[in-house]
Amino acid sequence: VQLQASGGGLVQAGGSLRLSCAASGTSFRLNHMAWYRQAPGKQRELVARITSGFLTNYADSVKGRFTISRDNAKNTVYLQMNSLEPEDTAVYYCNLARAAGDYWGQGTLVTVSS
């Protein structure tokens, strides 16, 4: 299984970014997918999750601002991030959850300037 994340960058507060994570080597549609983030000096935290059945849940800090979605035809999960805040600055990782263990992408850096 390989996960390739992209879409990070530098954006001003209030701006938007869309992250993408392309999966290969797996039956993507059967897997639950998620985005995590890790800010400097902090633990990695769950940002949003989408199940194989398209159910979603979000961290309280991003509810109403971020949207997770998936395109099974493209084996890709997305994270649309709006109204970005400096506190959203972190490395964002996509995650594929399996009973036998999780897989992680390489991370993409999001920097939000004030």
What does this structure look like?
With 114 residues, this protein is an all-beta fold. Helix content is 0%, strand content 54%. The strands form two sheets. Strands 2, 4, 5, 6, 9, 10 and 11 form a seven-stranded mixed sheet that branches. Strand 9 (90-97) and strand 10 form a beta hairpin. The relative contact order is 0.32. The model has no long low-confidence stretch (mean pLDDT 96).
Short description:
This protein is mostly beta strands. The chain has no helices and eleven strands. It is globular and about 40 Å long.
H/E element sequence: EEEEEEEEEEE
Please give the largest β-sheet. Answer: 7 strands, mixed
Shape: globular
Mean pLDDT: 96
- Report the strand count: 11
Low-pLDDT runs: none
Task: State the helix count.
Answer: 0
N/C terminus separation: 37 Å
Could you tell me the strand content as a percent range? over 45%
- Our Rg estimate from Cα atoms comes to 13 Å
Q: Tell me the structural class.
A: mainly beta
Portion of residues in helices?
A: under 10%
Keywords, separated by commas or semicolons:
mainly beta; seven-stranded mixed beta sheet; 0% helix; globular
